[in-house]
Structures are given as structure tokens and as C-alpha cells.
Amino acid sequence: MRLPTLTPVSGTILNISPVSRECCSQLISLRTSDGVINLMVTTDTYVMDCARLRAGMRVTGFYNPNAPVPLIFPPQYRAEIIVAIFPNDQVMLDYFDRNLLASNGSLKLNLDNQTNVLTPNGQRYSCNPGGNTLLVLYRATTRSIPPQTTPRKIIVFC
User: Is the pLDDT of residue 158 over 90?
Assistant: First the structure.
């Protein structure tokens, strides 16, 4: 399954506030390199590892750039995916082919027995994750073309 093309935005959470009259939604303000943006987090937002989001946490959020947005400042997007980022972590969401090469050729995955491969609901994924949209959490890459990495964790959207 291919998810719609989602745009990543990374930053530090400034604050989290409830959305008026919507008890299940929150508005997260992020300080990014381009300024402040707001991400709407709803019950449909996938939060990796069910992380409890809090001010000061570094996160990467993914949103659909083709979805309608209010014309306000700071910009506000509906988050589809939120990932808590720890020091030296990098995250990528893309379609990976059967050879575990990203659709744009920017990353090649090498799996080992330490790579945690899961479905979004936390169940172990025992097949080849290639041929799916993958949320990949990794640290270092090689300087080869394409860069290669052995990811710490993969979430398979199938």
C-alpha cells in the first residue's frame, strides 16, 4: 500500500494545547528552522510508539501537503504521523521497493537481526518489508551512492 506523499517537518515542541470543544484533538506548536508551525493531532494521527508528547521534545511530523489548510499564521497542518526524535536519530517515510531502496533512490536499507520491524499496531512483521511504505528510524549512513543504513526500527504500512 502506498500512503499519499507526506511532507516532513521537524522541530521542537513549544507547547501543546487542547482544541476548543474537541477533547480528542490537540494543537502542537513546533519551532522549526523555518519558524513556528502548528500541527493538529487527532485520534487518527499515528504517533510512533504511542509516545507521550511534551514541550521540549524533538519530533518529526508528516502531513499531507494537498489537504486543505486554514489561511492563518503560523501555518497549521493536520498531522498524519508524529515521531519522537532522539539525539542522532533520523527518520524517513517513503515507499521502498523489494530491494529496500527508497522510491527516490536516496536511501538503501540493510536489515540485520537487531532491526525491529513492526506494523503500526506494534505487531512483529516477519516478511520482507520491501514493496511497502516504510517509516524508518536510523542513525548513521554510508557515504556511498545511494547512502545505506541499518535501521533501528521500521514501521511497515501494509
Answer: no
